[in-house]
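Query structure, 394 tokens:
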């Protein structure tokens, strides 16, 4: 088992800067996910950890020791690729056992002509077979060991690729979008399997995905990347509940967070559509800010809007999206210079609204996120979390 420490990892391909100096420390046994939009440098970073790509500058240490001088197969890491990279002409058993064949047998012993001759070779083969069997049992692949990859389902191929990584008992598992070739249902199932496998093996997992749900559901911590930099590193709840920037807030969470343009009035109080809220931040009067409100923090006002001093604004239904367990309601903000917003609703609540009339949407100010004009998170003036702002409204 091992820690992984990345220090100022930078990488360019020709004139294109892909990684801008990434610092990241991953704890022993941790499940860390690199998440971010396509092209942000996730694969490049994980390939550098694996030793499949060389960084331009910076260092990789595994278990506290630099591995920069080690080639990929010397690093005690195993990588699982999105494409599985299985050999089509080999059986499942041979595919899983391949890393052991390569490390335990000499080139001579691997030559077909000498196959029948060596007793030593037979002993090595028996050892490999036992190790492959143990891994296959863990992954429920025992009955498939003699098949070839083409005779397997996508999920089974995925397991074979996992088995090939497990068979060397690596300290660190590196996984690059391993579930993206599976259909939606299997992907959900495999999320659970991978999380359980991680628990069982106790190894360090570094997992790459562009799917924020995978990142949120499996990881101990998530590193959100964009354009070659880590924007925020934290637990899934930290990223969801205290996003450091608009980019993180927008990427994490489904439906996407509602973003509304607002301004700072005198005294730092936030005004939304000309109405003062009870939130205040440091900043100059007149400054533009953005208010982030998650769909679950926004709801249809019951009774008179503004009751009990609750913040509200008016909107008109555009579309109802039935998810079975709940509805996502999409609203337009008629006449306002703002994009639409979404809320979650029960079927009963969804039935009370239609496209014909404007409704009032009310929200929990303590659950709002505030971002400055550059998209960085703003903390409230009293220094606590936004959620602990003292209401200014009489
Ligand atoms: N071998 C390469 N040669 C040139 N450009 C590359 C190479 N590998 C990746 N890139 C570029 O680097 C950027 C980051 O790629 P990648 O790390 O694969 O992103 P991600 O995995 O987050 O989608 C992309 O713009 C990609 O086109
Ligand atoms: Mg990639």
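Result returned for the query:
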């Amino acid at each position: 088992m091992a820690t992984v420490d990345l220090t100022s990892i930078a990488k360019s391909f020709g004139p294109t800067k892909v990684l801008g100096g990434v610092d990241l420390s991953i704890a022993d046994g941790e499940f860390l996910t690199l998440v971010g939009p396509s092209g942000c440098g996730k694969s490049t970073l994980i390939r550098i950890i694996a030793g499949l790509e060389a960084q331009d500058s910076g260092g990789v240490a595994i278990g506290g020791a630099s591995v920069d001088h080690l080639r990929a197969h010397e690093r005690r890491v195993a990588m699982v690729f999105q494409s599985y990279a299985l050999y089509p002409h080999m059986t499942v058993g041979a595919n899983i056992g391949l890393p052991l064949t390569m490390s335990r047998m000499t080139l001579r012993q691997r030559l077909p002509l000498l196959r029948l001759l060596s007793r030593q070779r037979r002993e090595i083969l028996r050892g490999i077979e036992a190790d492959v069997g143990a891994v296959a049992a863990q992954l429920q692949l025992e009955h498939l060991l003699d098949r070839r990859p083409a005779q397997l389902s996508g999920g089974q191929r995925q397991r074979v690729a996992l088995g090939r990584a497990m068979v060397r008992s690596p300290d660190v598992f590196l996984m690059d979008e391993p579930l993206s070739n599976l259909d939606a249902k299997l992907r959900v199932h495999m999320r659970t399997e991978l999380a359980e496998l991680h628990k069982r093996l106790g190894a360090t997992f570094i997992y790459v995905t562009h799917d924020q749900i995978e990142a949120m559901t499996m990881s101990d911590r998530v590193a959100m990347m964009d354009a070659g930099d880590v924007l925020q590193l934290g637990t899934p709840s930290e990223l969801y509940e205290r996003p450091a920037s608009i980019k993180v807030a927008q990427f994490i969470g489904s439906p996407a967070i509602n973003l509304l343009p607002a301004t700072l009035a005198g005294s730092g109080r936030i005004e939304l559509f000309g109405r003062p809220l009870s939130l205040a931040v440091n900043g100059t009067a007149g400054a533009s800010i953005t208010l982030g409100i998650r769909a679950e923090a926004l709801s249809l006002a019951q009774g008179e809007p503004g009751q009990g001093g609750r913040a509200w604004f008016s909107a008109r239904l555009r579309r109802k999206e039935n998810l079975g367990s709940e509805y996502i309601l999409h609203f337009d903000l008629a006449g306002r210079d703002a994009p639409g917003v979404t809320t979650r609703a029960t079927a009963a609540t969804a039935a009370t609204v239609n496209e014909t009339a404007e409704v009032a949407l009310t929200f929990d100010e303590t659950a709002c996120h505030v971002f400055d004009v550059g998209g960085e998170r703003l903390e409230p003036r009293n220094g606590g979390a936004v959620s602990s702002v003292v209401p200014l409204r009489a």
